[in-house]
Amino acid sequence: HAARPGNPALRGHVTAGPPSGRPRSSTTRRTLIVSYPESTRRSAAAGSQDQASKKLPETDAIFENLNQVHAHAARDPETLRISLDTKAKVKIGEFSRGGVARGAEVVQAVDHDMHPDAVLAPAGILELAADQLNIVFGTSRDTSDFVADALELWWTNRHKVHGQVRRLQIDLDNGPEIASSRTQFMKRLVEFSDRHQLTLELAYYPPYHSKYNPIERCWGILENHWNGALLTSIDTVLSWAKTMTWRAVTPIVHLLDRVYETGVRLTPSEFQPTAARLKRSTLLPKWSLLIEPQTG
Questions:
Q1: How many Å apart are CA 237 and CA 227, to the nearest integer?
Q2: If exposure means fewest CB atoms within 10 Å of the residue's CB, which of 71, 80, 142, 187 is most exposed?
Q3: d(CA 294, CA 277)
Q4: Calpha distance 231→238 (Å, rounded)
Q5: In sequence order, which residues have a C-beta less than 8 Å from that of residue 14 and are 6 or more positions away?
Q6: How many CB atoms lie within 10 A of CB 277?
Q7: Distance (Å, rounded) from C-alpha 94 to C-alpha 229?
Q8: Which residues are bridge partners to 83 per DSSP?
Q9: What is the tens place of the pLDDT at every residue in 248-288?
Q10: Residue (of 154, 127, 177) closest to 253 by Cα position
Q11: Per-residue pLDDT reduced to its tens digit, 25-77
Q12: Predicted TM-score of the model (pTM)
């Protein structure tokens, strides 16, 4: 069997201390932020996805394919391996997140997150070789176009650092907005490949195993970092995200303020030109595919 990584909840580090400024306290709030027993705390990466016992017939072959593409990426100086995924939406407001915070005064918070002031959709891109985490917070919906725009924003910001790169090897899970069957996402990736003249190699993790995607461990670290804070504004969320660390490296954080529509799909005839560009694996067509750029 292909080797599995260790416990994602044990990876990475968290910086101590909040950003400057402290959320205001309120005498109208009902529930204190309190310390919960250690046994009840679980990281986001190891939470609801703890279903590794579920397997497809292809699961071992998928992991073997991942091992092979990762080994190739490590050997090739023109290949950059990244891990890409989104996380649960972040609700803005004076809500308890189940954590603790130190301070001279008791800070109070509401015990439910109804009627948030705003909702942010985070997308993360982890550059594996440098341990550089990039987080894009969207102000709209988590869609294929949002993820594609986050990838575009990341590469626009980072391509000069990776001037030698001609190939991106991308680790993904099979979330509904980024699956290889998602027509709009595949269309956007083909356009990205052509625009930047990059070969894209997509390597998907099998269902119920997305916790092995490296970016998932970063989300757990972020949750532990800010779970004692009141995320009362977009600026507060961005500030807290900027002060976490992943393996001693602080993340690059962006805000993407754009409206996205859900349910954007291509008809079979519209998708045909894109489908023709996808070089799918014979054995694992849903889990391993290649997109090569065209010129002109």
A1: 11
A2: 71
A3: 9
A4: 9
A5: 221, 224, 225, 244, 245
A6: 18
A7: 9
A8: 126, 171
A9: 999 999 999 999 999 999 999 999 999 999 999 999 999 99
A10: 154
A11: 433 443 333 333 333 334 444 444 455 457 899 999 999 999 999 999 999 99
A12: 0.78
Residue 169, class by beta-carbon neighbours within 10 Å (0-12 exposed, 13-18 middle, 19+ buried)? buried
How many whole angstroms separate alpha carbon 274 and alpha carbon 149? 18
Residues with Cβ within 8 Å of 284's Cβ and at least 6 positions away in sequence, in order, are 58, 61, 62, 65
Cα dihedral 83, 89, 94, 99, rounded to 10, equals -50
Question: What angle (nearest 5°) sits at the alpha carbon of residue 175, between those of residues 169 and 211?
Answer: 75
Give me the residue label for tokens 């052509």.
194
Angle subtended at Cα 141 by Cα 140 and Cα 146, rounded to the nearest 5 degrees: 90
How far is C-alpha 24 from the geometric centre of its chain's CA atoms? 30
As a whole number of angstroms, the distance between CA 250 and CA 241 comes to 9
Within 10 angstroms of residue 284's Cβ, the number of other Cβ atoms is 17
Tokens, residue 129: 């070789």
Q: Which two tokens stand for residue 172?
A: 């993904």
Characterise 142 by phi-psi region: left (phi > 0), alpha (psi -120 to 50), beta (else).
Answer: beta
Q: Which two tokens stand for residue 97?
A: 């997140």
The secondary structure of the chain as a DSSP string is: -PPPP--GGGSSB---SPPSS-PPP-TT--EE--PPPGGG---GGGSTT--TT---TTHHHHHHHHHHHHHHHHH-TTEEEEEEEE---EEESSB--S-----SSPPEEBSS--S-SEEEEEEEEEETTTTEEEEEEESS---HHHHHHHHHHHHHHHTTTTTT--EEEEEE---TTTSTT-HHHHHHHHHHHHHHT-EEEEEEPPTT-GGGSTHHHHHHHHHHHHTTS---SHHHHHHHHHH-BBTTBPPEEEEE-----S-----HHHHHHHHTTEEE-SS-TTTEEEE-----
Dihedrals φ, ψ of 68, to 5°?
Answer: -70, -45
Q: For residue 110, give the nearest of 223, 25, 222, 235 by alpha carbon.
A: 25
